[in-house]
Structures are given as C-alpha cells and as structure tokens.
Structures
1.
Amino acid sequence: ELKVEQNPLFLSMQEGKNYTIYCNYSTTSDRLYWYRQDPGKSLESLFVLLSNGAVKQEGRLMASLDTKARLSTLHITAAVHDLSATYFCAVDNYGGSQGNLIFGKGTKLSVKP
Amino acid sequence: EADIYQTPRYLVIGTGKKITLECSQTMGHDKMYWYQQDPGMELHLIHYSYGVNSTEKGDLSSESTVSRIRTEHFPLTLESARPSHTSQYLCASRDLRFAGELFFGEGSRLTVL
C-alpha cells in the first residue's frame, strides 16, 4: 500500500529565510505533484514532476524528484508572506487503484515578518 | 485555468435533508474524484469514477453516493444529511494521457445543523 509522508507538518518561517519541505513515499512511482491550498480555498497545482531527476522552479519555489530515494523536495527561497499556505504532495498509486493519487497530510506554512 | 465547476459553493441545511452536490468539467476527462476535507486537514478520497457508468468507493467510508451518466457530470448525493457530514467537498478530474495532474473545482462547503 502506497503511503506518502510529508514533513514538517507545520512550519513557521521568517521572511527572507530558506527552507525545504520533504515528501517521502513508500512504493515505486515516477509521477509526483505539488499543490498549494490557501485557507478556505481549493487546491491549485504548483508542479508536476514526471521523471527521476525532474526539477521545476516557479518564483521562490523549486521542486525536485528523486525516484530512487522515493523523495521529493519543495525548496523555498527567501520566503515572503504571500507564500503562507498549506502545501500538499501527491503520488500516483500505480500499485493500488490505478488512476488515483495518494496525498500527503500537507505542510502548513506560515511566513512571518 | 481548469474548467471544473462545483455548485453550490456554500450550503447550510438541516439534519435529515437530501442534498446533491454538482460537479461538471468541460475538459473531457474520464477520471473524476470526490474528496472530503475538513478545514486545514488532509484530503480523503470518498468516490471516484473512471468513466461513464463507472463508480467506486474511495478510501474513506462515506454515506454519500455518486453517479456518472455523462462524462462531464459527477454529482454526489447525501440522502439524509447529518452534522457529521459538515465538511468541504472537493471535486477533481484528470487525464492520464498528459501530465496527469488533478484539476480541482472550487469546492462545496456543507454545514449541517
């Protein structure tokens, strides 16, 4: 059974600082997705990582995928308040119900001045 | 921008009422999903469909039912709402022929009194 673990689950950062959110998963998969959710809103797609070594960057966020280590990272550079949100990673569940994504529990990020 | 729509966005009803949450997408995606999410918490898959006339229960037991008579439409019905059904319900769809990311609707926030 595929399990997806994110850490940390809560992250309080100061503006200008760097930090990394980790997403580990338990079985083989080569598709990983990152989503952002603002309070009271739906999920918005941030990154789609489709192969080992994939790296995507958008503004102050950079995501990478290491399928051999079953690990994805979401790196935040020089955080700003606007990045405060909950970030979810999700992995394709090939071994189980095909076509379904398994989500991590989310990392709630709070960026303070 | 994703073309997936949910109605109603907000609904407050009394215990015992029957409700239907509507979800429509115009992208021609075969795979559609319903997730339940309490504020700031993890997502729970409650129903999914791989195409017309296909419906499956998800990982979280739910007293709701779904139907998929048309590709674009995936409504969720609660025959008799209870306060424990109070939550946000997110509809999503995806197409595995491309990047496979999930596109989410804006959500339906249900409150049962």
2.
Amino acid sequence: AQSVTQPDIHITVSEGASLELRCNYSYGATPYLFWYVQSPGQGLQLLLKYFSGDTLVQGIKGFEAEFKRSQSSFNLRKPSVHWSDAAEYFCAVLSSGTYKYIFGTGTRLKVLA
Amino acid sequence: EAQVTQNPRYLITVTGKKLTVTCSQNMNHEYMSWYRQDPGLGLRQIYYSMNVEVTDKGDVPEGYKVSRKEKRNFPLILESPSPNQTSLYFCASSVRLAGSQETQYFGPGTRLLVL
C-alpha cells in the first residue's frame, strides 16, 4: 500500500539556521511528490512538486526539495529559515493510477528568534 | 480572483442531523477532492471527482457522500453525522492530474463539531 512518512512531528530551529524536513514514501512506480505548507488557521499552500526530470526542485519562499529514488525520499530544505516559516508542513504523493492523494502526518516547525 | 470557497466555515450540529458542506471553484478545474484533517493524522482523502458525474472513494469515505452535477461544485454530504466525524474539512481542486501544470488549490476549511 502506498504511504508517506514524516518521521519528525515537531522541529525547532533558530532564525537564520538551515532546515531539512524529512519525507519518505512507499509507492511502486515513479511517484508525483508534493510539499505543502499550512500556516495557523489557514488552508494549504503548495510549496513545490516533483513529476519527473531534475531531481532537485525549486519552490516558492526559498524552499527546495530533492527526490532520491534509491532512498524513497523527498526531503524539503531551506538554507536560512525566517520567523514567518513557522507552520506545519505536509509531504504528499499522488498515485497516477488511482488519482488518490496520500498525505503524511505533518511536521510542525517552530522558529526561535 | 481564482479561489475555492467552502460554506459554512464553522458548523456545530447534533448526531444524526443531515448536513451539507458546499464547495465551489471558479477555475474550471476538472479534479475536485475532499479531505479531513485530524491532529496527528494529517490529511486524509474522503472522495474525489475526476469530472462531472465521475466520483471515487478516497481512503476514508465511510459516512460521507458526494455529488458532482456541475463542474464548479462538489458538495460533501453527511447523511447521519456522528461525533467521530468532528474534524476540519478541506475541499481542493486542480486543473488536471498529470503533467507539470498540475497544482491543487485548497479552500479555507470547514470546522465541524458533531455533538
């Protein structure tokens, strides 16, 4: 069965520090992968997506993610975190066969001033 | 302005009283979907629709119904709500499912409390 795992429930970083949020997926074929951000009390906003091609994907707000097929991972990174990045982050996979989305359980990011 | 709207935004109801949460998009998207979000469980897909009159179950469809009679609307129906359906619900839509243009847009959410 397809699944998405975000092993870190909470992460705290200092403003200006680098960030990496982990995402591992289980899927038979090449997946379509996404990262979304949810600010408190808000809906979800797409940060970036991977369908094919270059395995390093650039997104909005200075985020990037790297698809590593050998590790079944799609980790999200940012070189320097801003206080406004405090939010919950969700990794998701889209099944091209069934057109279903599977989301991870999320990672809540706290940024220290 | 391109958007997905949901109504109501907040709803308190009692067990067994039928309710409908509406979802509408103005982007002419073919694909629409409903999710519920619960603490520690992330988002789980309830139902999705590939186009008018085409719907299919997501991972947690029990207790819910949907219909897609028009392209822009995708209402979520709870025929007999129960307390375990207390949750935050999101509607989303996208132009298509494959290819680099696919982006899913989310509504603002509907917070439902079933007593």
